[in-house]
Design a protein that fits this description.
With 163 residues, the chain is mainly alpha-helical. Helix content is 74%, strand content 6%.
Length: 163
């Protein structure tokens, strides 16, 4: 009888230390949110705006080159040097504008997606608590080498109200 009691006590203590693990592809869940379409539309509009700005700069650059080539034979050396410097400065400004546009677009995209990922994170937290998970790994990060445990992606989608 003592042995049975000891075994039961031992099993109860092991169960109290049992941990429940799950995994979820956060990017896939976020991609299923209907709000993502609005984000994509806004990013496309911003992309068009930035491309238009760069196109106008490039057109000014092309015009300066054409004007320079058309009148180079009638310019003094000083005028040629000044015009060439203007063209080079415009080239540099265009390159800087391209880099700034890329950074601006990337930041814009991140700012718009941040609330979506916060919403998904909260749903993952809620699913964890409601279902007794100790840890839930994000399989979209590539850091999980083995996706054992329970895939909670569907539970998170249900929590978010998306199928």
């Amino acid at each position: 009888m003592k042995h049975i009691f000891a075994i039961v006590l031992l099993l109860i203590s092991f169960n109290s230390f049992a941990q429940k693990y799950g995994h979820c592809d956060i990017n896939q869940v976020a991609a299923s949110l209907p709000e993502l379409l609005d984000v994509q539309t806004q990013v496309e509009a911003k992309t068009s705006e930035l491309e238009g700005r760069l196109q106008r700069m490039y057109e000014v650059y092309q015009k300066k080159i054409e004007d320079f080539q058309a009148s180079v034979s009638t310019m003094t050396t000083e005028q040629q040097t000044k015009a060439a410097e203007e063209i080079q400065n415009l080239e540099v400004r265009i390159q800087e504008a391209q880099q700034n546009s890329q950074a601006e677009l990337q930041q814009f995209d991140m700012d718009l997606k941040k609330p979506l990922f916060e919403k998904v994170k909260k749903a993952v937290d809620d699913v964890s608590v409601e279902n007794g998970f100790t840890l839930i790994f994000d399989t979209s990060s590539g850091a999980v080498l083995y996706a054992g445990g329970t895939d909670v992606s569907d539970l998170v989608r249900q929590k978010l109200g998306v199928e």
